[in-house]
Structure to design on (245 residues):
């Protein structure tokens, strides 16, 4: 059987278990609406322009995480820095109280835009009842990811939540997967890691010798020669559950 040796599952969270890119974008749009309305940027900057500015700044800074963001420390400081850098480009300068208010607004909005499929939630519950130990391994920060999991209604099904920002190790570094497995207290040979990113999830987990299932509807089917590939998390869950009964 394909998964006969698998006794435990480790999932990526964002864009694997939940549809995070859509939720993230909706949250950014709402925050930018808030900024434009409250602080009235120079040059008649509209919401769309503010969103584009944030995406540009955020992507550049996160691409240089180890160099620029990691030394800042906790996730609140990182998030504050990214928004400050965005606003500076639009000549908006906020004091500490105002930036904290903005970050709190962003966090609340992120919680309001958590999207999970009903079938996904139902399958996770069945796996939990079946006694399959499960964990989540993510690059996000603990408070935000914990809130997403609770909003999705799946918090009771996972024994471990490993968050890269909080422990100072981010995927695809092998140490983050090992830490997750150690906390889950299972044998690495009996684990299956499930994620959507080829670099962060598939290559990262594989480098430690963990079996991997890739969630991707990519047309680059050559990659699927190396690992099982599924069009969606629900396709994987349906297949996996058919092998454990």
């Amino acid at each position: 059987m394909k998964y006969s040796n698998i006794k435990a599952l480790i999932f990526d969270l964002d864009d694997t278990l939940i549809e995070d890119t859509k939720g993230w974008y909706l949250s950014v749009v709402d925050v930018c609406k808030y900024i434009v309305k409250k602080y009235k940027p120079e040059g008649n900057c509209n919401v769309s322009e503010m969103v584009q500015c944030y995406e540009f700044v955020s992507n550049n800074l996160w691409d240089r995480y180890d160099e620029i963001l990691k030394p800042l420390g906790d996730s609140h400081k990182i998030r504050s820095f990214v928004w400050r850098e965005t606003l500076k480009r639009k000549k908006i300068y906020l004091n500490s109280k105002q930036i904290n208010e903005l970050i709190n607004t962003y966090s609340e909005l992120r919680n309001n835009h958590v999207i999970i499929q009903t079938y996904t939630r139902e399958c996770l519950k069945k796996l939990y009842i079946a006694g399959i130990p499960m964990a989540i391994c993510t690059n996000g920060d603990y408070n935000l990811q914990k809130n997403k999991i609770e909003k999705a209604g799946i918090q009771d099904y996972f024994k471990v939540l490993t968050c890269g920002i909080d422990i100072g190790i981010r995927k695809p570094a092998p140490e983050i997967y090992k830490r997750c497995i150690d906390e889950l207290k299972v044998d690495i040979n009996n684990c299956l890691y499930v994620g959507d990113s080829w670099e962060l999830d598939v290559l990262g987990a594989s480098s430690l010798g963990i079996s991997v299932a890739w969630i991707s509807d990519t047309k680059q089917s050559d990659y699927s020669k190396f690992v099982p590939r599924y069009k969606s998390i629900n396709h994987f869950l349906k297949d996996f559950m058919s092998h454990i009964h």
